[in-house]
Amino acid sequence: MRIEEEEEAAATEEHNVNIPKPSSSSTNKDASDGFETASDGELGPNGSDDETQHHLQVQEEQQNLSQTDELAFKQKSFEQANEVKLEGNGLFGNGQYEEALSQYELALQLAPDMPSSVELRSICHSNRAICFSKLGKYEDSVKECTKALELNPSYLKALIRRAEAHEKLEHFEEAIADMKKILELDPSNDQARKAIRRVEPLAEAKREKMKEEMIGKLKDMGNSLLGRFGMSVDNFKAVKDPNTGSYSVSFQR
């Protein structure tokens, strides 16, 4: 099924998600600025308090430096993850789906655990989903779309791709559920509305088929039991009462 027409080059996301660069801090500031040092002989009555304040200020500066370094490291990791994702997009555009899958997986491993990485990670999962669909691995496509939606529940493209994969797997009820969710998020999506009308008869036919298979299994089970007594389920007839809607069973030889 195709809910949304996409060109090959548009199948992947090209978003570059940037996070703010860490603000520069006055790390070159002289460590003695803001307080005076004194030898032990020059310490007055509050000398010990001044020394404690000095240690606290040093610790605070070290902590600020550590936080800045951590943010810089996360930013670098984010930039690397985004570059790898773009490489995956290029491979996808060339039809190299297995190689693109590897790049998207690497981008997911590089992406730091921070709020601004959520969009990047959801895009990578969704892009892995379309790669799996291209390779005919629809179960894997469903799993990747689900991961993308766990990160971003309103991700329309992931919903569309999961609905497509569900239909390929003949999971018609699940496909319809995804299409209805698409319409909740985007009521103007006529393609999803048309897809629901197309898939609903398929879902009904599958339900009837499953019902017949279940009845057949129950009939076989009943015949295996009744056969010991020289009977079969065909000796019993269920008649529906039009007034009450209940059934009565009669025995026929």
TrEMBL record:
Which residue ranges are recorded for the region named Disordered?
A: 1-67
Q: Which Pfam families match?
A: TPR_1, TPR_2, TPR_8
Instruction: Tell whether Repeat is among the UniProt keywords.
Output: yes
Task: Report each TPR repeat as a residue range.
Answer: 81-114, 122-155, 156-189
Which InterPro entries does this entry report, sorted A to Z? TPR-like_helical_dom_sf, TPR_2, TPR_domain_protein, TPR_rpt
Q: Where is the composition biased (Acidic residues)?
A: 1-11
Which keywords fit this entry according to its UniProt record?
Repeat, TPR repeat
Listed SUPFAM superfamilies: TPR-like (SSF48452)
Q: Which PANTHER family does this one have?
A: TETRATRICOPEPTIDE REPEAT PROTEIN 1
Protein's recorded name: Tetratricopeptide repeat protein 1
Native source species: Rubus argutus
